[in-house]
Each structure stands twice: as C-alpha cells, then as structure tokens.
Amino acid sequence: MADDTTTGTDQSDADDKGEDKGGQAGEDQNLDTKGEDKGDDKGNGEDKGGGDGDGGDGGDTGWRDSITDDKARKFAETFSIPADAANAAFKFRQQLSNSILKLGKKPTEDETKTFRKALGVPDTHEGYKVDIPADLPEQLQLDDAGKARLDNYLKGMHEAGATPDVVQRGVDLYYGFLAEELDAQQKGVADATTQADADLAREWGKDAKRNDEFARRAYVTFGDEATAKWLEDTIVDGVKLGDHPRMRRMYSNIGRNMGEGRLQMPVSEERGGDIQTRMDEIHSWQHGDAKEQEKYKRPAIQKELAGLYREQYGSAPIVGSEGRTL
C-alpha cells in the first residue's frame, strides 16, 4: 500500500513538472512567435519607409522607364515627378484648345474649309465688308471702273485666304498711296503751270490778256462739258492741257479769226506736222543760250514764224512782245 501511495505521489509530481515544462515551452514558443511578428512588423515598417522616401524626395526616376521614344524620354527628364508632367500636359491642352493649327502640305478640302473659317475668312469674296475712306478727293471716288478694280482685289484676297483685317489694311494702304500720289501730282501741275504762265506772259508781253480772251472765246464756242473735262484732266509736260502754252496759242488764234470772220481751214496732217516742228524749234531758241536768243529775235526768223502761224492757224496774227507776229 505504501508503495502504491508513493508511486501515485511521484506520478503526480511528474505530471506537475510536465505541465510546468509544457507551459514554459508554450510560453517560450509564444515569445518566439511574438518576436517574429515584431520582426516582420519591423521589416514591413522598413518597406513602408522606403516607399515613402522614394515618392516624397523626387529621387525615383523609375516612372520614366516605360518611355521608349528617345525624344519623349528627353522631354520627360525635364520634370522631377509625374505630377509636374501632368500639370504641363494639362496646360498645353488648354493652350491647344484656343489655337488654330497650321494646315499640312496636302490638306483636305474639309481641313482647309475649317481652317479658313477659324481665321474668319468668308465663304465668298462678297463676304468681305471693307470701308472706303470717307475723305477721298473727288478724283479717287469709286466709279464703275474703281468698283471693278475693288472687286478683283477682293477676289484675289479671298483666293489667298486673307483675313478681313488683312483685306481692310490693304484697302487703307492702297487709297493712302493714291492720295499721296495725287497730292504730289497736283503740286507738280501747279508748279509747272506757274512756269508756263510766266513763259507765255513774257512771250506775249502786253497782249497776253487780250490773247487769252481770244482763247476763251474759242473754248466757249467749240467746247462742251466733255471737252472741258478732257482739257482739265489731261496732263501734258506736267501742265493741264487747257493751260498748255501750245493749246493757248492755238485757241487764241482761232478766237481771233472767229472775230474777224477769216477762220482758215486746216492744212494737211503731214504739212501741219512739219510746220509745228519748225515752230517748236524756233520757240526753243527763245529760252536757249545767249546766241540762240539773239537768233530768235532776228527779223527774218520772226517773219518766218509769223508765216508759219498764219499757215497753221489762220491769216490773223497774234501780236506779242516787241511788236512781233507769233
């Protein structure tokens, strides 16, 4: 009995020790497991730290690795992080939406039509609305010929795809140039007419006023509105034709012959040309050097000149300075 009791006690002690060992072992294992968890957590923490560092300090260039085009890759290298590239792309997109793209070398009809419409080019040349300067001189006012020229201009500008602003600028420049040329022409005519008046006044002397009256008589009798306009608008030697000394001499002779009733019929065209050539030669001496001026005053030359005038214009002479017959 005693042995049995001892054995039971021993067994109980052994069981207690086993439990202690098992419990200790379990606790030890739990500690190991916790250590591993902590180690894993630590490792995960390192991974997280590394990820945050790459994204935050801009040092990671791996986002460019997928770009295979060399030019695109070089462009991407100008940006530190993807966000900068995205911002730049968005800004470019906004600019592009407000831009007019240049046509290619061989655009389609629709592409050309869209491009011209974006520029404001009308569908036809009649769509251009141009303003003609309101203060144009009478000579530059639009007549039928001027309207035809303007229409041709608009057609050419439309074919070239010109914008309305360009077309208007062209009109402004064109009429500006015409106005400047007209001003210069009018000044030149005024100066030339002054000089012609002075030369004819010296030639006619005291009879200048009388001879001009004869000329006016012929103008009124044989001229009409169209002739008057022609004499006013036609420029010869920088002088209006109606003010030209040669025209005034001719009309003065006609007017004088009208008053005296001895209007002579004109000579043949060939003879008239020869006479006029000789008269021009003689008159050129009047304003030549001293030797030619002296020659011009010779009685024989004056007699010849008077005969030429009678043959060319009629039998009644025009008396000029120095009592000579012109």
Q: Spatial order of the strands in the main sheet?
A: 1-2
Please trace the helix and strand order, writing H or E for each element: HHHHHHHHEEHHHH
What is the residue-mean pLDDT, rounded to a whole number?
76
* Estimated radius of gyration: 55 Å
Keywords:
326 residues, mainly alpha, 1% strand, disordered N terminus, disordered C terminus
Walk me through the structure.
The protein is mostly helical. Among the domains are: 110-184, no CATH class; 268-326. The chain has helices at residues 2-56, 70-76, 82-97, 109-119, 144-159, 164-204, 208-222, 225-233, 245-260, 269-286, 290-296, 299-313, and strands at 235-236, 239-240. The model is unreliable at 1-58 and 315-326 (pLDDT under 50).
Short précis:
By secondary structure, the protein is mainly alpha-helical. It contains 12 helices and 2 strands; from the N terminus they run H-H-H-H-H-H-H-H-E-E-H-H-H-H. A hairpin with a 2-residue loop joins strand 1 and strand 2.
